[in-house]
# Entry
Amino acid sequence: MLLDPFLEFAFMRRALVGCLALSLSAPPLGVFLVLRRLSLIGDALGHAILPGVALGVAVFGLSLVAMSAGGVLAGLAVVLGAGLAARGTALREDASLAGFYLVALALGVAIVSAGGGQVDLLALLFGAVLAVDDPALLFMAGTASVTLVALAVMWRPLVIETFDPGFLRVARGRGAVWHLGFLALVVLNLVAAFQALGTLMAVGLMMLPATAARFWSGSLGGQVVAAAVLAMLASAIGLTLSFHADIPTGPAIVLTAGAFWLLSLAAGPEGSLLARVLRRPHYAG
# Structure
């Protein structure tokens, strides 16, 4: 029951390998988003790539290159627009990002509607395991490789910019450059994940394991490892659930990741409800 879908069907193996690859790169980015108190930015960027993906399909058809390029350009446009608005006006970055992503989401839905059925809205929003062909798998694996290498290069300044952004400003460490580079990696991973998970569900693989990892380790490195492991488990179990229960892949994987998050929240070894109860001091009468 557990292994047959992956042994019998090549598309299930491609989807599994692709999701496992992204599980190595997307959740570590989510850990940094959580630490920087930017968790909802991942969700906003997941919505922001929709018009680029929809426009790529409407103009060039079901082309992986067109959809991916459109999604990346749309996501980067929202990131840069929100950053410029935050630095040039009195508006905070999170508020400006909310405005940009809502406009992008509405534009994406309008493009899909104007396509007259050429673009499958449900497939774009919630993903389709059959869409993970060999080129999509290579794109996912390439995205994971680029992300891991980039994180290795920018790890130290990214950690400093996360915990003490004022230090980089004083030391002229170009904190804004690292911040934009980090958000570009977030966009790239969301675009790669939408093939199997959809634009709305892709952020779930990034953020739910990252928030759950907080309850498994108190160190940054430990949280990154825990987030990747939880994401890989959620991908394998979610794909199996999707196959047998005949539900969309994206919701199945995200629901599994959500179950791990609830379990971690309730009984994880670091700061969970159970851990706080057990560590609560008891006073003798």
Observations:
- The domain at 4-199 is CATH 1.10.3470.10 (ABC transporter involved in vitamin B12 uptake, BtuC).
- The chain has a mean pLDDT of 83.
- Residues 245 and 252 are 9 Å apart (CA to CA).
